[in-house]
């Protein structure tokens, strides 16, 4: 069996926004884990900008909701949903 490497114009310096540039995500529904901060928040922001419906899966719904509110306003996308807890305690 022969394997073929996938060729892509993206590398370690590429941003999520660059990868999805030009994509119509208005018909997509995405769940982003760890969306309250860091890479998860940046991924949610990049997906929300072109119109995806984004649901946050987070440990802390308070922190997740603050991040979601900021992304909702910055992206102009009301389809960024409230945070959903993935904590074993549900808080």
Descriptive key words:
91 residues, 3-stranded parallel β-sheet, 3 helices, alpha/beta, 3 strands
Q: How would you describe what is shown here?
A:
By secondary structure, the chain is an alpha/beta fold. The protein is 34% helix and 19% strand. The chain contains three helices and three strands; from the N terminus they run H-E-H-E-H-E. The chain has helices spanning 16-20, 38-48, 61-75, and strands at residues 29-33, 53-58, 80-85. The longest helix has 15 residues, at 61-75. It is globular.
How many extended strands?
3
Rg over alpha carbons: 15 Å
Question: What summary fits the major beta sheet?
Answer: 3 strands, parallel
Classify the helix fraction into a percent range.
Answer: 25-40%
With strands numbered from the N-terminus, the spatial order across the biggest sheet is: 1-2-3
* Chain-averaged pLDDT: 87
Report, as a whole number of angstroms, the end-to-end distance.
49 Å
Classification by helices and strands? alpha/beta
Order of helices and strands: HEHEHE
Total of DSSP H or I helical runs spanning 4+ residues: 3
Write the layout of secondary structure elements.
Layout: H1 16-20, E1 29-33, H2 38-48, E2 53-58, H3 61-75, E3 80-85
Parallel strand pairs: 1-2, 2-3
Helix pairs in contact: 2-3
């Amino acid at each position: 069996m022969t394997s073929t490497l996938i060729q892509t114009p993206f590398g370690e310096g590429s941003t999520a926004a660059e990868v999805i540039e030009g994509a119509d995500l208005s018909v997509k529904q995405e769940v982003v884990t760890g969306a309250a901060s860091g890479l998860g928040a940046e991924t949610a922001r990049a997906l929300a900008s072109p119109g995806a419906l984004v649901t946050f899966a987070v440990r802390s719904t308070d922190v997740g909701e603050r991040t979601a509110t900021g992304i909702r306003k910055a992206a102009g996308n009301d389809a960024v949903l409230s945070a959903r807890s993935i904590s074993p305690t549900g808080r």
